[in-house]
Amino acid sequence: MELENNTAVPEHVAIIMDGNGRWAEQQGQPRKNGHEEGMEAVRRVTKRASERGVKVLTLYAFSTENWKRPPQEVHFLMQLPIRFFDRFVPELQEKNIRVNMIGFEDKVPGSTKKAILKAMEQTKHNTGMILNFAFNYGGRSEIVQATKRIAEKVANNEIDLNDINESLVEGHMLTHSLEPYQNVDFLIRSSGEQRLSNFLLWQNAYSEFYFSELLWPEFTGDVLDEALLSYKNRKRRYGAL
Ligand code: FPP
């Protein structure tokens, strides 16, 4: 299968990287090994997405609901960005990839925040793909936060009630820094589960969905290509005929 560069490639691809735990269990290994392998899949898919001309790749690395997991696993997941950036920032630099993060900083340990901010700083002049980690992210919380900020502006007479429209709401979402690619074009979820799990609720309004049966550690660049080929054959109508 050949996929030419830049032909009907979705600008914003978002991925729910599911199945690390099941992959590890299948191998008779502890769950953390699944997350470790998942990191390699992140590397493979980031590289391929950037080669294909994707503008923004958003990866769901930790949801606001993931705090409900056992403390040891939460601790391990919090360490992942530190390990990932330690290893892969030189490669991201080489590929002109810029790191970004969306999510709520509260509760994220200082050392993790520091590693993410450092990677963002190191790659801030890169002009290629944006690798956007959703970390301690939740779609409903994002909408609540935006609503509060807009209400505050109305209460302070900074804006009028009639100024509230879709573009204003969009500008108050965590994704506003991704402009003009705030909206997701293509949503991929691995591991056979078919649900949105509170991921980019506003931004996925018109995205195309792709579900893979593969567990995230099994995901490769070629699997991404298969997904992109499926996207190429979709007809997006945005409600029109
Ligand atoms: C879902 O699998 C995966 C996560 C909650 C963590 C995602 C993290 C990575 C893929 C590693 C890369 C992260 C960074 C920050 C570089 P699961 O544990 O829910 O799997 P299961 O459904 O099989 O239990």
Descriptive notes:
The chain is of the alpha/beta class. A 6-stranded parallel beta sheet has the order 3-4-2-1-5-6, with helices on both faces. The chain is globular. Helix 4 (110-122) links the parallel strand 3 and strand 4 (130-137). The chain is built from 7 helices and 6 strands; from the N terminus they run E-H-H-E-H-E-H-E-H-H-E-E-H. The chain has helices at 20-26, 31-52, 71-94, 110-122, 139-155, 166-171, 221-232, and strands at 12-16, 56-63, 98-102, 130-137, 186-189, 208-211. Helices cover 42% and strands 14% of the residues. The model has no long low-confidence stretch (mean pLDDT 96). The structure holds farnesyl diphosphate. Farnesyl diphosphate binds at residues 17-22, 35, 38-39, 42, 61, 66, 77, 80-81, 84, 133, 216.
